[in-house]
Amino acid sequence: MFSAGWLVAAVFVAILLTSWVTFTLTRLDRLHARVDAAQAALDAQLVRRAAALLHLGEMQGSAIPRRAELVRAARAAMAASPTDRRVAENEVGHAIAGLAERREELPAEAVAELSEAAARVLIARRFFNDAVRDTRTLRARRMPRLLRLAGHRELPQFFDIDDTSLLVAEPAGSAEQGAPSPQDRWRAP
Length: 189
Description:
This protein is mainly alpha-helical. It has one domain (4-186). Helix content is 66%, strand content 0%. It is built from 6 helices and no strands. The protein has helices spanning 4-57, 67-79, 85-100, 108-140, 142-146, 174-177. The longest helix is centred in the N-terminal third of the chain and has 54 residues, at 4-57. The relative contact order is 0.14.
């Protein structure tokens, strides 16, 4: 009936298919782990940014504009549930943007801390959204969908907030000394 050649070819095709499915499943698991790690890093940076804003809002002896709004936005972001997170983080971003025009009046160390925290949020959000994009791209392919290689995991969602206006502040004398700004520290040379 079947010759040995057909049997060898069938076994070879089965091995190739099994290897491809195993490779794809492993890659998908790694991408989901990458999304989870990026989510944890993003959460940590968002908490850090809210803490920096709260620290600035609770500073004594400084004429800080809209102090109550800053404190309220920071506390709301720190206590926000995952479903309300985007709204709370947008409020923090708007509060930081409101400080940008009056940064000369603010304590320099608090501005530097807030500026660095805002830059780190921007970077962490980009890493997270890249991981989500890669995972969604692989899961959208035909064979991973048909074989349900993702199992019962939820499809990861992008995290989009308005963080376009960073509070950019250069430390005193850094322009003359050539010291990098907090945003420049994270760029590749």
